[in-house]
Amino acid sequence: MSDVLVVLEERGGRVSRISWEAFAAAQFLGAAQHQPVSAVVMGAQTEALAAEVAAQHSGRVIRVEHALLRHYTPDGFALALQQLIKSEDPTYVMFPHTYQVRDFAPALATRMGEVLIGDVVSIGEGPTFTRQFMQGRLTGAYRHTGDGPCFVSVQAGAFRAEPIAPAGADGACVSTFTPTLDAAQIRTHPGEPFRGSEQTVDLGSAQRIVSVGRGIKEAENLPMVEELAKALGAELAASRPICDNGWLPMERQVGSSGQTVSPQLYLAVGISGAIQHLVGMKGSQCIVAINKDAEAPIFEVADYGIVGDLFEVVPALTEAVKAAKE
Ligand SMILES: Cc1cc2nc3c(=O)[nH]c(=O)nc-3n(C[C@H](O)[C@H](O)[C@H](O)COP(=O)(O)OP(=O)(O)OC[C@H]3O[C@@H](n4cnc5c(N)ncnc54)[C@H](O)[C@@H]3O)c2cc1C
Q1: Cis omega (within 30 of 0) on the bond before 163?
Q2: Is the dihedral of CA 236, 242, 247, 251 positive or negative?
Q3: Which residues contact ligand 1 via a Cβ below 6 A?
Q4: CA of 298 relative to ligand 1 center, distance in Å
Q5: Angle 222-232/310-325 helices, nearest 10 degrees?
Q6: Consecutive sets of 10 residues in the chain, 326 residues long: mean pLDDT of each?
Q7: DSSP secondary structure, 18-54, as one string
Q8: What 3-state DSSP class applies to 244?
């Protein structure tokens, strides 16, 4: 056994963002364990997906191709991957922690006498895989001890997609694996794919976010923060009370019951830093917090902290940003 396989998902014909994050996690693990990483794409016509991956990856790309994989079914995907894993004999099999993966990967792992270490937020020496409990209040470190491959799914936002190694001069090596599948083995008929509520803003892809909390006090004060977001070219986001009050739409909520984000800049304005908020934004590259309470927990995760009244700091910051751009 000598390989890390990472199984990527497509959304709208492209590799999904969270799949690239799982890819980054696989590359991190592969580098730590001195093992090559192979990417897996699945479906009935995966040429374009494989080409998209090959442009980013100098290792192997495996197309798992079969007419019965045209639409996702848990039986089809689990059976096909089981055959691939038997043939490849990898040490690690990694996935993005999506609804689809939650649907089939535990069954796949069980069939192979293993378990899925799900929703992993970091990878440590050993390797150990860290998971969170109780809204992030507790963490547990897991080490794989079985004989078969170690199955791991990676939480959205836990790894940054950027460190993906660019393709080498020769590009990746793309191969095709054709599993033996029979329609009678597939016990479900695929319906319309699940879609979350239509979102006009994808905070997960935003590079800069200005996020506002209850410190703003009134909905009428929001334009002040919006102006700062505009000056910074940032998306506006919020803590839960702001969305619960209907001051901003739910799609702008960051946290355990909102979106998970990992921008280059996360500017938290009047947000205390409750654990349910932190789990959604702590993967940000640079966190700046403005809060009048020097003891606010947000400062524990902040790279830069401004202790002060947001009603004074935000307009001054907006002016400074505008002036810097002139
Ligand atoms: C099951 C569950 C799920 C949850 N999911 C989420 C979630 O997804 N996202 C989320 O955000 N929360 C979530 N919460 C709620 C979470 O526990 C907190 O209640 C919430 O994050 C607090 O929001 P806040 O920081 O805006 O408000 P507060 O905790 O009230 O903090 C306001 C902050 O503003 C500061 N402030 C006040 N006035 C000023 C001023 N003039 N200048 C500067 N600073 C000022 C205060 O010092 C304070 O730190 C969830 C809770 C539960 C139980």
Answers
A1: no
A2: positive
A3: 213-215, 239-241, 253-258, 270-272, 274, 276-277, 280, 290-293, 296, 309-311
A4: 10
A5: 30
A6: 87 90 95 95 96 89 97 97 97 95 97 96 95 81 94 88 59 90 94 67 88 98 98 97 96 90 94 92 93 96 97 98 92
A7: HHHHHHHHHHHHHHHHT--EEEEEEES--HHHHHHHH
A8: helix
